[in-house]
Amino acid sequence: MPAPSKKTAHAGENLRVEGQTKEKKKMENKTALTGKYTFEFCDGATCELSLAFIQLKRLSSKSPNLYKRYQAVMNKGNNADELDMLTVLYAAYICANFDKENLLTEDEFIEKCGTDRFAIRDAMEAMTNPKKRKASASRSD
């Protein structure tokens, strides 16, 4: 059985349909299955993001300050601001890339994200609120 493909947010693919984008709907479905997400920076480079629980556990021990900031954003719920979205994405970037060398600093990451607020918001929503499974696709006990 082939492995599920990863998701990519790209501003050029955002087609508005009933208040959401087609690309966002695809990302939500795939993120729920794999826990991994591919984000495209404004310069065309991509990076992997993950908020898998095991990765968040590693983040809490290896970078407690970033984990506390991530957790504070998640506790804000709908009151999160634009910079909060970037904090979540940066935490997901670190989680997905712990074992790699030469990781971007937070400022470098934010700069590479550019100004496409729709792509940033869609990525954050796909990471933090993946589409829920239907009853027939739920885990068995």
Can you offer a commentary on this structure?
With 141 residues, the protein is mainly α. It has one domain (8-133). Helix content is 50%, strand content 11%. The chain has helices at 22-34, 53-62, 64-76, 82-96, 106-113, 117-128, and strands at 8-9, 16-17, 20-21, 36-40, 46-50. The strands form two sheets. A three-stranded mixed beta sheet has the order 1-4-5. Helix 2 packs across helix 4 (82-96). The longest helix has 15 residues, at 82-96. The chain is globular and about 30 Å long. The chain starts with 7 loop residues before the first strand and ends in a 13-residue tail after the last helix. Mean pLDDT is 78; it is low at 1-22 and 24-30.
List the keywords.
single chain, about 140 residues, mainly alpha, three-stranded mixed beta sheet, two-stranded antiparallel sheet, about 50% helix, disordered N terminus
In short:
50% of the residues lie in helices and 11% in strands.
